[in-house]
């Protein structure tokens, strides 16, 4: 049971203060009971004599042994089980290599819920979640009125005897960070002598210089069906040009400025060729590019190669603690039909024959819903003062007040990231349609609130009905293969992600909601910062419409599927152009076999015939313009417009 909390709309000038208040409230709540008042054992003994504290035994068997530093924990909805909080969990005792056990004194007369998880402790005593049971519904411990209660033997990851495969996923960040070193591009090495060092035939390994409790180095070599994170081989991971290898380092926060590493390069004959040193203190900001010199193992003064190595740092979500109560990160039942998703609401606006409502406005979202769209897709940017707002492009065309505009070259282009929200609402808005300059009402000039451009994310979350699902696309500019980026971005990526997460967690719970982004690293951040909402990797794939991005993970559908598997994303949102050939159904099946969803999007979806086609070949959902024109004629309501379905999402709301 969640603890209710009264929430009011955020004002721009009080955003930081409001967030701090909510964080303080969350901390206070985590220190009290989730649905129980005071000491449950005292209360039970003072009530009916039939309800007495009883020592309950928890027995669990593992399929494979834990690592020497790993421990098994227990948490649940009772005070004595820690009320889903990591810091108050119950440790189990290792009985043998595969069996763990503990005893907990609990109420005898009520049904309890619980989960198991694997963790390690760092030197400061903080727990780091390695893996946890992620069944939609927790395990259940039935009431027991006898002195000797039956204690079933649980199997880690299997909540019932009917399950065939374990439901276990990695945890979310708490007192640790993730550093990823990414071999995901072209021309990463500059070699001095190909005879001495051949980057086409090399094995790579990241070695921590200092031993640190809670530090683990894993890697993903992204191949279909084999992309999961795993420990490194003794002599490194084979790498050649075109491979995608991501080193995934988890380390305690207090080691972020102190830990040192060594990149070791081996030949295929497992001979150490050379190495480069790097320190966590070199990792400035959330992402960047390391310039490493690989020095010869035989002649340390000799440089074998130079390496341009991109990195990303994922910090824990900073505003409120999360818990084990439940997760929707992989919740997409097979019984759901193919869903209809309204692209930017009821479709693109700054084109010929646009819909009546401007895209990415509350009016446009409600229009799609009125025509039975199940979800709407919207695009989120952050303003200069940290306000998440809804708009598609990274910037906008504008002009000073009163200036007469006749030609496109008279317009100025400004980026949303550089503008405070109050100024953004005042700006004149223009677009160029078929060579003609068109002006649209500024936010402040539009008398109808639902039709105003640049609605805040919090307003959208509060005003749309819960029965309308939302695909929250996080806009982050991509570097192009031919050079340059889509737009400049100076806002810190962790800060951006946390601001959006804060509003979604506080105001967007209790509804179908999924995150997506074209930025693979943003998807990784959203996945490991929280455990509530699913995340999709959004890609343009093999297209003739736009220039490819430099990140190899974005280049084709299978690369996206592999990346989703590596970092346990819910799935992908691929471009429709990838699925117009004869093998389209097979391609989608390749994703579904990996347990992933696929939300197909693009102009090639924009007709009733294409909507039907993508449904028939097995897309999980289809995202298209003009729900008013293209929703199937037989559809009579939005799928989530059901009290029973909405009840399934109530547990998203933690405070």
List its traits:
about 30% strand; about 650 residues; 12 helices; hydrolase; 34 strands; Immunoglobulin-like; TIM Barrel; Glycerophosphocholine phosphodiesterase GPCPD1 isoform X2; alpha+beta; eleven-stranded antiparallel sheet; GP_PDE_dom; single chain; glycerophosphocholine phosphodiesterase activity; disordered N terminus; 3 domains; CBM20
Overall average residue pLDDT: 91
Q: Name the quaternary structure.
A: single chain
User: Are there runs of 5+ residues with pLDDT below 50, and where?
Assistant: 1-39, 41-48
Largest sheet: 11 strands, antiparallel
Briefly note the CATH topology name of the largest domain: TIM Barrel
Name the CATH superfamily assignment of the largest domain: Phosphatidylinositol (PI) phosphodiesterase
Secondary structure: helix percent: 10-25%
What is the approximate shape?
globular
Number of helices: 12
**How many β strands by DSSP?**
34
- Give the C-alpha Rg: 26 Å
N/C terminus separation: 10 Å
Strand content is 25-35%
Number of domains: 3
CATH architecture of the largest domain: Alpha-Beta Barrel
**SSE-based structural type:** alpha+beta
The CATH class of the largest domain is Alpha Beta
């Amino acid at each position: 049971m969640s603890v209710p909390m009264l929430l009011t709309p955020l004002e721009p000038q009080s955003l930081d203060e409001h967030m701090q208040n909510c964080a303080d409230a969350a901390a206070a709540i985590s220190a009290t009971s989730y649905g129980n008042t005071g000491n449950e054992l005292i209360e039970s003994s003072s009530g009916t004599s039939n309800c007495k504290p009883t020592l309950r035994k928890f027995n669990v068997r593992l399929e494979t042994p834990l690592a020497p530093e790993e421990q098994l924990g227990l948490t649940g909805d009772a005070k004595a089980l820690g009320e889903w909080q990591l810091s108050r969990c119950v440790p189990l005792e290792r009985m043998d290599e595969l069996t763990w056990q503990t005893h907990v004194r609990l109420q005898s007369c009520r049904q309890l819920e619980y989960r198991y998880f694997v963790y390690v402790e760092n030197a400061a005593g903080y727990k780091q979640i390695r893996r946890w049971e992620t069944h939609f519904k927790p395990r259940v411990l039935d009431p027991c009125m006898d002195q000797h209660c039956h204690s079933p033997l649980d199997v880690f990851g299997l909540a019932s005897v009917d399950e065939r495969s374990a439901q276990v996923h990695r945890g979310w960040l708490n007192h640790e960070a993730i550093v990823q070193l990414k071999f995901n591009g072209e021309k990463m090495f500059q070699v001095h002598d190909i005879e001495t060092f051949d980057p086409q035939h090399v094995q790579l390994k990241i070695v921590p210089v200092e031993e640190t409790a809670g530090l683990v180095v894993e890697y993903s070599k992204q191949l279909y069906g084999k992309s999961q994170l795993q420990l490194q081989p003794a002599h490194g991971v084979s790498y050649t040009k075109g491979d995608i290898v991501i080193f995934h380092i988890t380390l305690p926060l207090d080691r972020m400025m102190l830990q040192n590493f060594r990149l070791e390069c081996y030949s295929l004959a497992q001979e150490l060729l050379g190495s480069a040193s790097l320190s966590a203190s070199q990792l400035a900001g959330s992402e960047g590019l390391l310039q490493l010199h690989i020095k010869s193992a035989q002649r340390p003064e000799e440089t074998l190669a130079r390496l341009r190595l991109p990195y990303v740092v994922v910090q824990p979500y900073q505003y409120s603690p999360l818990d084990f109560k439940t997760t929707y990160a992989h919740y997409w039942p097979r019984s759901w039909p193919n869903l209809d998703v309204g692209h930017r609401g009821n479709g693109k606006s700054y084109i010929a024959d646009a819909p009546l409502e401007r895209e990415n406005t509350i009016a446009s979202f409600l229009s799609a819903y009125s025509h039975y769209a199940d979800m709407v897709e919207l695009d989120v940017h952050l303003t200069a003062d940290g306000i998440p707002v809804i708009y598609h492009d990274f910037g906008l065309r504008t002009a000073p007040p009163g200036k007469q505009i006749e030609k496109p070259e008279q317009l100025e282009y400004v980026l949303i990231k550089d503008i405070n929200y109050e100024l953004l609402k005042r700006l004149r808005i223009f677009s160029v349609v078929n060579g003609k300059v068109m002006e649209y009402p500024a936010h402040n000039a539009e008398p109808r609130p639902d039709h105003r451009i640049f609605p805040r994310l919090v307003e959208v979350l509060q005003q749309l009905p819960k029965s309308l699902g939302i695909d929250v696309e996080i806009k982050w500019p991509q570097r192009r293969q031919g050079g340059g980026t889509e737009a400049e971005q100076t806002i810190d990526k962790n800060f951006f992600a946390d601001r959006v997460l804060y509003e979604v967690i506080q105001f967007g719970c209790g509804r179908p909601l999924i995150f997506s982004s074209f930025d693979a690293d943003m998807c990784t951040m959203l996945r490991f910062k929280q455990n509530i909402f699913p995340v999709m990797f959004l890609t343009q794939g093999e297209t003739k419409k736009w220039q490819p991005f430099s990140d190899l993970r974005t280049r084709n559908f299978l690369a996206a599927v592999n990346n989703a598997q590596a970092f346990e994303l819910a799935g992908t949102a691929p471009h429709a152009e990838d699925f117009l050939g004869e093998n389209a159904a097979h391609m989608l099946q390749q994703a579904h076999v990996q347990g992933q969803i696929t939300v197909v999007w693009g102009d090639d979806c924009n007709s009733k015939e294409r909507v039907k086609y993508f449904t028939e070949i097995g897309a999980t959902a289809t995202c298209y313009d003009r729900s008013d024109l293209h929703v199937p004629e037989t559809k009579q309501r939005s799928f989530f417009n059901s009290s029973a379905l909405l009840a399934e999402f109530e547990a998203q709301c933690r405070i």
